[in-house]
Design brief:
This protein is of the alpha/beta class and about 160 residues long. Helices cover about 45% and strands about 20% of the residues. Strands 3-2-1-4-5 form a five-stranded parallel β-sheet, sandwiched between helices. Bound molecules: 4'-phosphopantetheine. 4'-phosphopantetheine binds near residues 8, 9, 36, 72 and 105.
């Protein structure tokens, strides 16, 4: 059984994330989606909210489990027994940062491989930051986030303190 871990901030989950989750879950026997609770970037949504959105979004995908973590990624991967870390690559601009993370993770845990999936072209421009900016300014993010969490995300991003 090959288990994989797809980590990220997911602040909030987008259709781009869902594209990677669906495709990775069809490759691996079990896919953990790991929400980094204490992301370096100051998140708009707290870890509980980000996990709740993902739980709702992955409902019905049998071999996906959502977890949150606030430790070294490779330690979490080891504890879960995952041999693979999955990351999505949207464009060349993602590459340098993702390569750096893959190298440090390999240095820390050479028994765990990082596998990159190329984002589908229809989502190659999409990011959580764009969703936050557009929704925060009242724009439409209907096709950009999973339908089941769209209203909650928009409502919360429209709150004045965000
Ligand atoms: O969605 P993001 O913000 O690009 O995800 C980055 C994330 C959470 C995958 C990365 O910051 C991470 O792995 N954090 C856990 C702490 C860690 O292991 N850091 C060292 C390797 S980058």
């Amino acid at each position: 059984m090959i288990k994989a871990l797809y980590p990220g901030s997911f602040d909030p989950v987008t259709m781009g994330h869902m594209d990677i989750i669906r495709r990775a879950s069809s490759i691996f026997d079990l896919l953990y989606v790991g929400v980094a609770a204490n992301s370096n970037k100051k998140p708009a949504f707290d870890a509980g909210e980000r996990v709740d959105f993902l739980h709702a979004a992955v409902e019905g995908i049998e071999n996906v489990q959502v977890i949150s973590f606030d430790r070294l990624l490779v330690d979490v991967a080891r504890e879960l027994g995952t041999q693979v870390i999955v990351k999505g690559l949207r464009a060349v601009s993602d590459y340098e940062y993702e390569l750096q993370m893959a190298h440090i993770n390999y240095k820390l845990a050479p028994d765990i491989e990082t596998v990159f999936l190329a984002a589908s072209t229809r989502y190659s421009y999409l990011s959580s930051s764009l969703v936050k900016e557009v929704a925060g300014l009242g724009g439409c993010v209907k096709d950009l986030v999973p339908p089941v969490v769209h209203d909650d995300i928009v409502r919360q991003l429209s709150r004045p303190h965000r």
